[in-house]
Structure formats: C-alpha cells, structure tokens
Amino acid sequence: MSYFQFSRYRLFINNFFKVQFNKDRIYGLDILRALAILFVVIGHGTNYLPQKLKGISDFFVFDGVSIFFVLSGFLIGGIIIKVLEKNKATIKTLFNFWIRRWFRTLPNYYMLIFLLLMFLPYIFYGGMSNPFRKMEYLFFLQNLNKPHPTFFPEAWSLCVEEWFYLIVPIIIFFLVGCVKISVKKAVFISAIFIMVTSMIFRYIKYTNIPINSIDDWDINIRKQVFTRLDSNMFGLVGAFISFYYKEAWKKHKNLLFIIGIIILIVHRYIYLAVGMGVYMCIFSFSLVSLGVLLILPFLSEYKKGTGIIFTFFTFISIISYSLYLLNLSMFSEFGLNLFNRCSLTGHTMVIVRYMWYWFFSISGSFLLYTFWEKPMMNLREKFK
Q1: Model confidence, pTM
Q2: HSE (side-chain half, CA atoms, 13 Å) at 347
Q3: Which of 55, 168, 198, 239 could disulfide-link to 230, CB 3.0 to 4.6 Å?
C-alpha cells in the first residue's frame, strides 16, 4: 500500500468515527453523563472478570443509573420550565414536548427490543417462558410496581424515565393550565409531591415484602418505577433553583460540589457496610440523589473544555444512551456465551473477552447513534 493510499484510508477512518456536536454543550454535564455511563459499563463488565477484580470495582464504581436520573430531571425539568414560561400550558404545547422526548428515546428502545428478539437464541438468557409478557415492554408496564422480567434487564431504568416524561409534565401542565397557579409553584409542588409519594411506596414495599438480600432489594425496590421517581425529582428541584434563583445556584457551587462528592463517597461505603434495612430500602436513593444534585451547580457552570480529554468525555456523553442500551444484553450476555465455547483459558481469556466487551460496546453504540438514533432525533423538527 502506497503512502497516498494509506493516508486516504486513515482519513476515511477518522471521518467515519467522527461525531459532530454542538459547540454550546455544557462540558461539566457531559463529564457527569460520561462518568455515569462508564460506571454502568464497568459494572456490567465485571461479568467478565475474576472474583478478586469484581470486588475491587465496588470501591470506585458509583451508581451511574441514579446519576442519570438526577441529570435527566435537571435537563428535562429545565426544558419544561422554559417552555411554560414562554408558552401557554396547552395540549399542543404538551404534545410538542412529548414528541421531542419520544423521538429522542423510543426509536433506540424499540430497535433494541427488535434486535434482542432476533438474536435471543444466540444470547441464551431467561425470560422467554411467557412471550406475552413482552407486550408490556411496548408501553413500559413491565416494572411499574413489580419485579422487572429477565428479558432486556436494563430496560427497568428506561421505564422510570418514560413515566417521568409522562407523569410530571401532566401534573405541571394541569396545575398551570387548569388550576391557574404559576409555573414556579407548579414545578415545586410537583417535585415535592412525587418525592414524598415515592418514599411512601418504598416504605410500603419495605414493610410488606421480605427484603433479606441484595437481590430482594434490587428487584423489589431499586428497579421499580413507583419506588424510584423521586430521583428524577431531585434533578427537577435543581432545574427549579437554577432557573428561579440563579445567583443562589451559583454562589456556593464549589462548597456544594465538595459536599456532594463526600455524600456520594459516604453512601458508597455505607452501601458496602450495612444490610438491607431502613436506610438501604427507604433513604439511600434520596441520599445519592441529593449528592448528585449538590454537584450540579459546579458542573453546570463548567461550560468549556479542550484537548483529547474533552473530546473523550464529549464523545462518550453523546453515545451514552446507545451505550446504555447495548452493553449488557447485546454484548455482555452474548459475549459470555460466546466465550464459554472458546478454548482460551487463564489470564489470556480474561483480557481478550474484556477487551472484546469494551470494543464492541463502544463501536456498536457509535454505529447505533450515527445511523439510527441521530437520524431519528433529526425528524423531531418535522413534527412541531
């Protein structure tokens, strides 16, 4: 191959894997989103690691999904506030909001369901004994108030998000459009109401269902819609403060950032030390969400970045939704079954399969984002 041919080939590869992004993106929030998805992928990737290495990850991998919930509440809450402060609370405005959200989230979600059903015989994980249960996935009903099925297990958090997109705007639009209170009061009332309601649901679960292990806690409290909506509300409170009390939001951002990090670290070690009691079942999610909320003022004001680290975090942030959907069911589960048939053993096997997991998760997410997620998002403007 000549030098000219090699240069053209390298240029093609560089352009192909290049993601265009808005220069006005808030770099601090991209960092947070990227770290959240990296925590998730690292956690799912422990399936490929020896037991000793799995234990090490527990000390530095935080709850990426809770970070996503708070960040989502902050961003979506900010959109709702801005929309209602500029427009009347009409059905048309509400549906315009939903259309923009659904073009952002649903195409990827339904694509993954299709792919998993296509490749399920090659993945070999449970949940196919009752195929009619899959119909619940079409309407995000599979874990409203019951354990999530084993099929497409990461979809539990998407149900929380979609019900947040549905319920919260309805409440706020109703309070503003029908009860005729201000947007400011409507947002605050909605956030507090859902926070309290979610904690009540957790208390009811805790007192009525035996929670004797981390698996009981995981399926009965952590991964159900009605028990987790308050995490999004902490983000909504952040959007409320940053919009209506902007100076207060920025005034102590450095101190709040430090306190937030301390809270997240303290929770991490409490989580490892205590059993499945009152703290873990009722209050732990609120503490984590509070920690994430407190770091948002600093990160939301950290707007610019340069260099390779900036590019890395921005790239991971942009493909984060596709990466979340693909890494577990499509690559972690499939890879485990694939390598069970492989003759490699020992350290070589660990390294090869772990690199395989990361390479295909990242590259597959890039392709899904480029050829499906982004084109679907671009259609939103046609449906205003």
Answers
A1: 0.90
A2: 0
A3: 198
